Amino acid sequence: MIYIGLDDTDNKTSRGTGRLARAMAATLSERYRVWGITRHQLLVDPRVPYTSHNSSATLHLLEDGDVDLSALADDMQALMLADFQEGSDPGLCVARIVVPEMAEFGRRAKTEVVRQSEARVLAVRCDCILRGLGGTQDGVIGALAGVGLAATGEDGRFILLGTMRELNGVQTVRAILDSGISQVRSMGGQTLKDGLIDTGGRLRPACREGRPILFVKPQESDPSLWVQVKLD
């Protein structure tokens, strides 16, 4: 897998980083195999400048062994700069091999204030591509953190995967599985094979065990109907 992290690409009135990531995935899919995009929640704290929720996005590309990471990073950079938003501080991270130090940096970024200088030093030590593309360039923090967290397979939720964004409202478990989600699981650990799920809008499967899992719980007013649980 190749991981591409981006963060701080928006301002208070612009489209969000998630929307940009989905648009970029559509363009990249013409040349690369895009598996999905995950959203990763980072620390929300007055000491941390962020636009809305302080989350970063990571694209997952399936590796065929022939991808030139520098060329891929150049492609990503061009797409990001073409949609640069005034006042944003975008960062880009591209990595094929994600070492434990990067995952630990991501976990720290969820609970404590980390610095841009730490991200840059770590990127050099771990031999991953990390670029600031404007403003303060603080987006390199979330970009690197998102890559580290995505590679663990135990963090975040999918904002793009298969055909899941075509489903909303009440859906059958079969339709959800057919959309590309690996499993529908209750918070108590039960694997659902059939039944109805009230999505409450779009599906938000979590990235756990290295795969997309939709977690659900019984609806209080109608126990025969399940509702999805949104995990970060």
Keywords:
232 residues, Alpha-Beta Plaits, 2 domains, six-stranded antiparallel sheet, six-stranded mixed sheet, globular, alpha+beta, 12 strands
Walkthrough of the structure:
The structure is a single chain. The chain has 232 residues and is an alpha+beta fold. It folds into two domains: 2-157, Alpha-Beta Plaits; 162-229, no CATH class. Helices cover 30% and strands 27% of the residues. It contains six helices and twelve strands. It has helices at residues 17-28, 69-82, 100-111, 116-126, 139-152, 173-178; strands spanning 2-7, 33-41, 55-62, 91-95, 129-132, 157-161, 170-172, 183-186, 196-198, 206-208, 211-218, 225-229. Helix 4 packs across helix 5 (139-152).
Intertermini distance: 21 Å
Q: Any guess at the CATH architecture of the largest domain?
A: 2-Layer Sandwich
Query: Sheet bearing the most strands, described?
Result: 6 strands, antiparallel
| Fold-level CATH name of the largest domain | Alpha-Beta Plaits
Number of strands: 12
List the strand order in the largest sheet: 5-4-1-3-2-6
**In what range is the share of β-strand residues?**
25-35%
